[in-house]
Amino acid sequence: MSTSAPAKVPTPEKPGGAFAGGPLDRYFRISERGSTVAREVRGGLATFFAMAYIIVLNPIILGSAKDMYGHHLDNGQLVTATALTAAFSTLLMGVIGNVPIAMAAGLGVNSVVALQLAPRMTWPDAMGMVVLAGFVVMLLVATGLRERVMNAVPFGLRKAIAIGIGLFIMLIGLVDSGFVSRIPDVAQTTVPLQLGTGGHLTGWPVLIFILGALLTFALIVRKVPGAILISIVGMTVLAMIINAAAKIPSWGLTVPKWPGNPVSTPDFGLVGQVSLFGGFSRVGVLTGILFVFTVLLSCFFDAMGTIMGISDEAKLTDAEGYMPGINRVLFVDGLSVAAGGAGSASATTAFVESTAGVGEGARTGFANIVTGGLFAVSLFLTPIATMVPSQAATPALIAVGFLILSHSVKEIDWADYTIAIPAFVTMLMMPFTYSITNGIGMGFITFTVLRLAAGRYRDVPVAMYVVSAVFAFYYLMPALGLT
Fold it and tell me: Known Pfam families for this protein (predicted)?
């Protein structure tokens, strides 16, 4: 007979953990949502590491453009502006919205600001357009129009938006890691993407991604708490060791190397450099309104899709797919757009990488306190914050993309083609056009047209007719000479 001690079984975390029943637990409703402080902390850490690249990437996008006078924005000031607005908006969303949705300068809208607005006006003018777009978003929230639009989205399309986001973040992960790369147009090929570089997987960075993805899935299968965060930290350490031994030049934006001087002094020179209406005097009222409309449309629907997808994945919605307290979340989102412009960091919006934290179990705004706090710390420790290579962080996006698909795809009514086809269009157009907004717009238009074709025009909410018309106008703007 064996005399060895029985294997220890991990004790499951109790809702709320050691803080159950305390003021922290009650305010953030941690126990009520079946979470624990430990899960929220892990989720906040995972989200930060998954999106910390924005501290480096946003300054590159904005700093590479010139305004009408040929002026560039200072890179150091852009780093400060990006980290500051991310910290402010993320903390605000956590405290007021109480959802694990982190905020930072939105990719896509920053390109609009850099490539469409700035060349035709000054930088303060361009940032003023962003602030005005944020004010309009808050006005739509205050009047109930934004919530009405969200509530008008049929259940099947809500699930399709979540799935589309899952596919989109998977593609983001594959591209950012170097596992998939774009084939240059000069190649004259009909295939836009390829495996690795030249159709082959080569180099240590890609190996870090592959090992990270396998480790993440293995830990998920084993139901190990903190699977995503363990993988990010473990792969970062391994990448640092490899880089120290082999001096790899191809890590991308962030190199896994301990910085010689981990402390940096923030430069707040761009904060408040805004001219609200100066842009209208340079481009005219109609063009100025169209510029604000373009920023507004991107911010409005990109955030809407992200909020719906993440809240659904975090199980913060009811049986009908609606999220209680959504107006607070939407108002903070609008305020964050304006704050991003006021800080000269471009529009701040909900980040899809928040799904990494949700995958770790984050269910409340306390996770945002962790993420936002780290962004605040990164104002002084930017070299450390940008030390995690994308190859170590992107496996989290692959894993979370799978989790979203596995939870949502079976809930769509595939027998009803007036829902199934728009859902199909929505979920595929997000990754294929590299835009959440495009996926939503094309899905909405398809849904409205098919319901009309089926003679079910009464089954289309009025808000869906209006939004579909707005999207149709948006897509026709270039043909009408309005861009």
Answer: Xan_ur_permease
Give 20: exposed, middle or buried? Use CB within 10 Å, 0-12, 13-18, 19+. Answer: middle
Q: How far apart are CA 297 and CA 440, in angstroms?
A: 11
Mean pLDDT calculated for residue range 238-264: 83
Within 10 A of 252 (CB to CB), how many other CB atoms are there?
15
Indicate if the pLDDT at residue 245 is higher than 80.
yes
> Would you tell me how many other CB atoms lie within 10 Å of the CB of residue 224?
14
Residue 18 — very low, low, confident or very high, per pLDDT cuts 50/70/90? Answer: low
Taking alpha carbons only, the member of 78, 84, 82 closest to residue 64 is 78
The DSSP result for 111-154, as a single string, is HHIIIIIGGGS-HHHHHHHHHHHHHHHHHHHHTTHHHHHHHTS-
| Positions of E strands within 254-347 | none
Tokens of 399: 């894993």
CA distances to 95, 177, 202, 332, 394 from 391, rounded to whole Å, are 31, 5, 13, 31, 6
Phi, psi dihedrals of residue 359, rounded to the nearest 5°: -65, -25
- Contact (Cβ atoms closer than 8 angstroms) between residue 430 and residue 163: no
Supply the pLDDT for residue 6: 42
Per-residue DSSP letters for 347-408? -EEE-TTHHHHHHTT--STHHHHHHHHHHHHHTT-HHHHT-S-HHHHTHHHHHHHHHHHHHH
Burial 157-179 (b: 16+ CB within 10 A, else e): bbbbbbbbbbbbbbbbbbbbbbb
What is the per-residue pLDDT across 166-201, written as a single tens digit (0 to 9) for each?
898 888 889 888 899 888 776 677 778 899 888 888
What is the pLDDT confidence band of residue 16, given thresholds at 50, 70 and 90?
Answer: low
Handedness of CA 272, 276, 282, 286 (dihedral sign): positive
pTM for this one? 0.76
- Which is it for the CA torsion 343, 345, 347, 352, positive or negative? negative
Task: Please tell me the distance from the alpha carbon of residue 35 to that of residue 270, in angstroms, as a whole number.
Answer: 39
249: Cβ contacts below 8 Å, ≥ 6 apart:
none
Per residue in 149-164, pLDDT (tens digit) is 888 888 888 889 888 8
Looking at residue 13, its pLDDT comes to 64
Name the token pair of 34. Answer: 């079946």
Burial letters 435-447, b for 16+ CB under 10 A, else e: bbbbbbbbbbbbb
Residues for the chain: how many in total? Answer: 483
Is residue 9's pLDDT more than 60? no
Query: For residue 379, which of 252, 254, 268, 260 has the smallest C-alpha distance?
Result: 268
Distance CA 335, CA 327 (A): 12
